[in-house]
Amino acid sequence: MHKEQTDNNFKERLTQLRESIDNIDNNLLELINKRLEFVQDVGKLKAKEGCQVLDSTRESQIFQRLLELNKGPLNEKVLRHLFTQIMAASRQLQRPSRVTFLGPEATFTHIAAMNHFGHSVEYIPQPSIRDVFNEVEKGTCHYGVVPVENSIEGAVNHTLDLFFESELKICAEKYQPISHDLLCKGGTIHDIQKVYSHPQAFAQCRRWLQKYLPKAALKECGSTALAAQKAAKKQGTAAIASSEAAHMYQLEVVASRIEDAAKNTTRFLIIGKDEIHRTGEDKTSLMFVTSHIPGALYKVLKPIADFGLNMVKLESRPTKHENWSYFFFVDIEAHIEDESMQKTLEEMKKLCLFLKSLGSYPRANEHKGSLI
Ligand SMILES: C=C(O[C@@H]1C=C(C(=O)O)C=C[C@H]1O)C(=O)O
């Protein structure tokens, strides 16, 4: 076949396919707008009854249903991303919501928040985890996002401690894969004399730094995003931060994925004032203090096993009121409305000096990586 003929065939076929895509897009647009009209009606109903806008239980059920229905080629990650954005736009239409997070912008907490709530909400950074709690408590923001544990470094103690004083509830959890890049304003790796980052990021990239930048001075900062801001101001300096930070602070990525261990993940909590209903795949977080008697912790945990519940986390923190006395934190795979959980709590309460539930919320899957 002549080249001209092949070109014409290609163009014709491309035009046909694109026409089909345009038709689908027109239908999608119409359907999304129809969906939003129903969403507005739901919003009016909720406003009348004084109900909250975000219904995590319903959203989790929507994801479960769509994932079962999906036959591809759309993959799970992209499906989740698309519907996160559609639902975020829906919530925003019912009532504009404000989400606060441990800032500044482009921290991993910000990335986790955007992956959870989508791009349609207003994001407000805070200088500390305590400020995130305060803003949600005061009601200036509807939800807060804070880190609670990292797969390599362990618990974020400050977050755990703040739950003692706070009446806020955990409304959701989010696992965010953490990947570090080396960012700088320009030039090459050979020009870098100083590297800024958060101590945890340094710890996570130790071997890489020893190999490629053994002579660079390492300067600790309060967050990887702050490190990026600093590196943006001076040539010859770099930051270890997210690729999102590169984009936000106009830096170049000199080396990507420089962390020593793959599968580095941080678990974030979404805190707020909502009570989240049962989905069937839930987690409940509890905080308690045991008495100072032999076997106290063993006895308090025993009902969890007796009622056949799965404990997925146990953490301890000093109470700070009395030396060598501890708060314990446990996560259990159940909802507080479950009968087995109710019975477990009844038994545990009898054996604790203090016990409170930090909330029941849908269990997140650790392997639903980030897309944004
Ligand atoms: C539309 C609703 O409000 C919100 C938006 C949802 C959606 O877009 O499907 C689902 C749950 C709520 O977080 C609803 O409650 O049904």
UniProtKB/TrEMBL annotation:
Which segments constitute the ACT domain? 285-362
Q: What is its main location?
A: cytoplasm
Report residues binding substrate. Answer: 18, 35, 46, 55, 59, 90, 94
The record's annotation in InterPro entries points to: ACT-like_dom_sf, ACT_dom, Chor_mutase/pphenate_deHydtase, Chorismate_II_sf, CM_dom_sf, CM_II_prokaryot, Preph_deHydtase, Preph_deHydtase_CS
Where does this polypeptide localize? Cytoplasm
Q: Where's the Chorismate mutase domain?
A: 8-98
Q: Name one GO cellular component term.
A: cytoplasm
UniProt cross-references to SMART domains, sorted A to Z: CM_2
Q: Please give the PROSITE patterns that the UniProt record associates with this protein.
A: ACT (PS51671), CHORISMATE_MUT_2 (PS51168), PREPHENATE_DEHYDR_1 (PS00857), PREPHENATE_DEHYDR_3 (PS51171)
Q: Which reaction does it catalyse?
A: prephenate + H(+) = 3-phenylpyruvate + CO2 + H2O; chorismate = prephenate
- Name the EC number(s): 4.2.1.51, 5.4.99.5
- List GO molecular-function terms, semicolon-separated: chorismate mutase activity; prephenate dehydratase activity
Its GO biological process annotations read: chorismate metabolic process; L-phenylalanine biosynthetic process
Give the superkingdom in one word: Bacteria
Q: Which UniProt keywords apply?
A: Amino-acid biosynthesis, Aromatic amino acid biosynthesis, Cytoplasm, Isomerase, Lyase, Multifunctional enzyme, Phenylalanine biosynthesis
**Annotated site, Essential for prephenate dehydratase activity, chain positions:** 266
Metabolic or biological pathway? Amino-acid biosynthesis; L-phenylalanine biosynthesis; phenylpyruvate from prephenate: step 1/1; Metabolic intermediate biosynthesis; prephenate biosynthesis; prephenate from chorismate: step 1/1
Q: Which NCBIfam families match?
A: PRK11898.1
Protein name as it appears in the record: Bifunctional chorismate mutase/prephenate dehydratase
Q: Which organism is it from?
A: Desulfonema limicola
Biological classification of the source:
Bacteria, Pseudomonadati, Thermodesulfobacteriota, Desulfobacteria, Desulfobacterales
This protein's encoding gene: pheA
